[in-house]
Amino acid sequence: MEQEHISSIDTPAPKRAFALSPKVLMSALTLAVALIGSYVAYQNVVPQYPPLLPEVLRESRFGTVATVNGDGISRERYNSALAAVANLAATNGISLEDTAVLTEIKNVALTSVIENEVLLQAARTANVTVDDATIEEQILATSIQIGGKDAFEAELEKAGVTEKAYRTSVFEQALLSSYIAQAVPTSTIAISDDAVKAFYKERTALAEKGTEIPAFDEVKDQVRAYLENTEHETLVRAHIEALVAAATIEKHITIEAAPVATSTEEVPTE
């Protein structure tokens, strides 16, 4: 859920947050990946590794990684999530040579596929539906954006994804979006004028000397939209956590914790 940066006011943009630390990036990805619908169910007779999955993260292609209310989550689906998270981490300049980062990527991928399954089950229970026309429109829009049918098919082949699998992914994404819109409607969010003014004052106070600061009236609508979006993300996260807490979840893989680095530097004594 990207938010437009507000002029010269220093609002926390996603890339800036990612730059803080691998931990911050991975925490943000837990929600992002779950809602983006990044896990593609590959339609091969024998499960294959996603081409974009780094060798260092290729551990197995078979079995289940977890069950949610009795429904299994395949290793194949987990590997797809691993590829998505690892690719996004690398894109944001995070080294995949760090053991701690790899551990965090695995944790985020596992959490994300579990949350994704919990959300899909909730959407089906709520009888949320998505019509075929919506799916076709989204696929066509993506195809046009990439450069046409041939370019689109080339991108799918590069990623190792069949058209059927991609269609399934688009369907799940649309289903989740519709469910979130019903379960956590934005109409329930109200940001007061005082909150908007307080945020504006807080951010402008942090501006460096000489920075041109836009007048409040010029950016108040953008500030309000940013605060509404942030509040909605908080409510969505709370809803997902409630669904997860109510579900029966069993994890079938163990992710080893990264070794804690110890400093060899001597501590001065008084």
What features would you describe in this structure?
With 270 residues, the protein is mostly helical. It has one domain (14-251): Porin chaperone SurA, peptide-binding domain (Triger factor/SurA peptide-binding fold, Orthogonal Bundle). The chain has helices spanning 14-18, 22-36, 75-91, 99-125, 132-146, 149-159, 163-183, 193-205, 216-246, and strands spanning 64-68, 71-74, 249-251. It has a three-stranded antiparallel sheet. The longest helix has 31 residues, at 216-246. It is globular, with a radius of gyration of 21 Å.
Summarize the structure.
This protein is mainly alpha-helical and about 270 residues long.
What characteristics describe this protein?
single chain, 270 residues, Triger factor/SurA peptide-binding fold, mainly alpha, three-stranded antiparallel sheet
